[in-house]
Amino acid sequence: MKAPVSWIRELVDLPETVTTEVLTDRLTALGLKLEGIEAAGADIEGPLVIGRVLTQDKEPQKNGKVINWCRVDIGAAGELVEGYDPAEGQGIVCGAHNFGPGDKVVVILPGGVLPGDFRISARKTYGHVSAGMICSASELGLPEDGSDGIIVVPEDGPEPGTDAREFLGFGDEVIEFEINPDRAYALSLRGVAREAALGFGVPFTDPADRAVPEVDGKAWEVVVDDPTGCPVFAARLVSGFDPSAPTPEHIKRRVEQAGMRSISLAVDVTNYVMLELGQPTHGYDADKVAGSLGVRRARAGERITTLDDAVRDLSPGNDGDLVITDDSGPIGLAGVMGGATTEISGTTTRILVEAAHWDPVSMFRTGKRHKLSSEAGKRNERGVDPLLPAGAADRVVELLVEHGGATAEPGFTLVGTAPPQPTVTIATDLPAQLSGIEISAMTAVEHLRAIGATVAEHEDGVVGVTPPSWRPDITDPHDLVEEVVRIVGYDQVPSLLPRRATGRGLTRLQRLRRRVGRSLAGAGLVEVVSFPFVGEATFDRLGLTADDPRRATVPLANPLSSEEPAYTTTLLPGLLEAAGRNIGRGAPGVALFETATVAFPSDNGPAPIYGVHTRPTEAEVDKLIEALPVQPQHLAVVLAGERQRSGWWGAGADAAWSDALAVVRRLATELGVELRVTATHRMPWHPGRCALLSIDEVEIGCAGELHPKVCKSFGLPARAAAIELDLDALLAATPTVAAGPQFSTMPLAKEDVALVVDASVTAADVEAALRDGAGPLLESVRLFDAYTGAQVGEGKKSLAFALRFRAPDRTLTEGEAGAARDAAVAEAASRTGAVQR
Amino acid sequence: MSGPNTDYDPVEVAAVSPAEVEAARDAALAAIAAAADLEQLKAVRSDHAGDRSPLALANREIGALPPQARKEAGQRVGQARGAVNQALAARSAELEVEHEARILVEESVDVTLPTDRDPVGARHPLTTGAELIADIFVAMGWEVAEGPVIEAEWLNFDALNLGPDHPARTMQDTFWTDPADDHVVLRTHTSPVQARTMLTRTPPIYVVCPGRVFRTDEYDATHSPMFHQVEGLAIDEGISMAHLKGTLDHFASQMFGEGITTRFRPSYFPFTEPSAEVDLVCFVCRGVDSDACRTCRGEGWIEWGGCGIVNPRVLQACGVDSSRYSGFAFGMGIDRTLMFRHGLEDLRTLFEGDVRFTTAFGSEL
User: Fold this and answer.
1) Which CATH superfamily is domain B125-359 in?
2) Of A115, A174, A367, A667, which is least surrounded by CB within 10 A?
3) Residue B56: CB atoms within 10 Å
4) Which pLDDT band, with edges at 50, 70 and 90, does B167 fall under?
């Protein structure tokens, strides 16, 4: 909402000491937040005066242009110009043609500065010395009035030589306020001025408070079919309107200051009244209206062309669009935008004025349905004072008569009555209780009266409060509390810490999640946060098969991009993109991780919508939650390119499949989880270098080298590696209370064995067999070498293990250790065909 | 110095003469003193104290002396050998020390050589920022509550006093899952976590809810379809705006420094009434000579978030007895808070995944 300071001051008698800054500070404190202050002309310096064009010689130029060589009478302002000759006038070259000799114009003289630091000086151009500039609206930083030329000052405007600033409305600051949805009344000068009066304790004269003619129903016949949608409808008629009458300068300026375009007198007047009072009104060309006006819901199949030339299919039914009709059908989208068939034109002489009160919910739905945001709709959907229509219609008529030469036809149609405001009961100590400020019952009542509410006499500390007609937002005691507290001042709220919080700290899961992040960062990985939106093309890049479960996504109804219309099931795309970006920006290697939610459809049907007057039952709450997608937290890692740098210490190393496994195994060990690693094939991993990660036979994810095609597609170096796993599952497997270990301090017995097995046998299987066969004396098994080559033969490999034995109570003899080793090897031989080298 | 006594003549035993013994001793001591390192000392030891050294030979000849001369000669040779051995030991110890010191000197390296063989990792400032905030509240006895990002419409809107036709629903353009009449949304704020908390716990409730939220904003330097919020909810007997102010003042000073407080301005949110915008004293200029301050752009204050007294309608929908309990709630953007706390100019740097950005924040905020 933009409000000129001069207009505010016209409606409320603010003391001189209230500067614009004081005013905006106070209004911000009351809840009308200052967005900005505009002052047209603030960046114009120097002599800007009214001039009269004495002569205008049209001079064609070689380049085909015609320039005007003008002599302009600048009256007393000539004193500012060295050698000015009043008889000759000021010589100025002008390229615009929308004016002629005798017209009054706005002139900036040498020494002046226009917006954009455009300095004016006398200069030679087109064979003349042009000493100044005849100004257009845009050159002065004013809104274009559509004439696309220089400003022609009306004949009754100021005399030549006068400073033009006042005429142009410069110096009048325009305050832009941010108006919250509950303060729709402040979308008008009436509302802003009322708040200013409240803020400074000065009297307020309500511009809506005006005498209106007796209601006789004779202005126009109006039939309201839907009094819920349209509780009040006022109509007036004027005739003899001069469609060529210009909009008076002050109305035009104010409409423009409010950020609207000046269109024609009739339209400008309705907008002016809307700005003044907050009541949207509409003018129809009465000669184009066939028969009586009706108000009803649209019917199936009806359509309308609105003033913006859009053809709109209307939504029928009880929740459908409210329309204004005549005998031809709908002629307006009620409260939102008028129709084209009855639009006021350059020949309109009879104007039917409508001012009505509309159901905000219906307005909101219509606006949303038709994606139509209008100044009228904005006000109507937030709730307008239902007592305004009669006065607003009268005000429009008054201005059309005053400025358009129209005659007000007798007759005043007013259908319906304003719905009564509900009475809200409030304990007078509630404002004090909820604000923590000491506010007496008397003060509370006084402030409620100050906002225009009617307060019944109190009784036992409880009062009945009837909010004023312009405050449909006030329905609950807490709404009244806000009113009282904002007048007392939010700055009066004391600062106290609540003392009763007795929380249990972070949960175990919350601590574990932090641990995971720290552990990965400690392993040299950098965390990233990426968007969770995906599309089929992303899955194609990952090489997922058509039936891959990760393609079954939760789709979005209104994605930002049609390329990525779903919530992701995997974190890898975002992570691979980020890795590619880092490599693309010159990083020799990158190690990234992300933990975030992924989603899988639950297919449990729609989520119910419950009422809000009572709590849903437990079963109902469960139903809400069951309807949601399954949303586990995943962890993903990408390692690409240089993992260890080369340097004076020797060669570095690029990330490989084993680095990914090292990261996840280390994490599992730190978390105390026994992770099982087996071979698998799954995209986007390399088919021969992908490990399936599981806990207690339940899969939790994969790790290994990425498929070469995937590396290529995401711009990653070959052999880049990745992990993705279900973090929730990993953390759920962490032991809550780890058992304290028992270990022996007796001497260690070492036995190393080298076993030759088929190349297809996994190290994990051999190790497991050794472990099982070695018996209770075994302390640890560790593979320390793996070899393939001529010495072990084609299709074979040699695996060397270090076995460590220790007894709890004695030093092992060589025989005991050897026997245990032999038992281990025997088990490996029987299970995996291992032969000791 | 005498050579080996090849034609031994027990009568001529010049070797044990006092002059000879003294000469041999002096020669030995001089050689010991002259030994520059342990290698040389080893040779000296062999020459002057070895089996074939003059003093050793002299010692051997003592037995050939007439008995009456033996005692004196024995004493003479023994003293000389003792002196030599002592000198050897002393010199050896000395050279040992020198040797060790020299090895350490020779082993010195250039300690300024780079050692960045392994890359340094980092957690994202959005993570560490959320943890910092959570810790401030946990230290006050609050708990951290969480909920899913894909949420039931009823929990995201209706339960929070945002009815189907509430104008505020257009203020936060919502991502809906398809079909939209499944009534499931990407949560537009973390407030549904508050609703869930009230539905599942009984007061007193003091929870803070950091999390990821979504709105259909186009992606630019100051807007993102995904961002992060932290909300707080306190429900207890006798809760007032004063407790809200106290809590936010404490939060502000912990997050931005001692003396940083907040200011309330009346505002509107469906879930709170009365509602307030909360501004923060600019932690850079502290409201003094703000005109040139780039952080608050001359305002002296920074818009931080929204807050208010929980609307009793919300308490009612979530099963909290509003006649007994009142509550306050607040919320602010974590991304935005990081932007002004760390002087970030483009929101998008948070989501690009450039490691240079993330590592700049260290491991804790």
Assistant:
1) Bira Bifunctional Protein; Domain 2 (3.30.930.10)
2) A115
3) 15
4) low
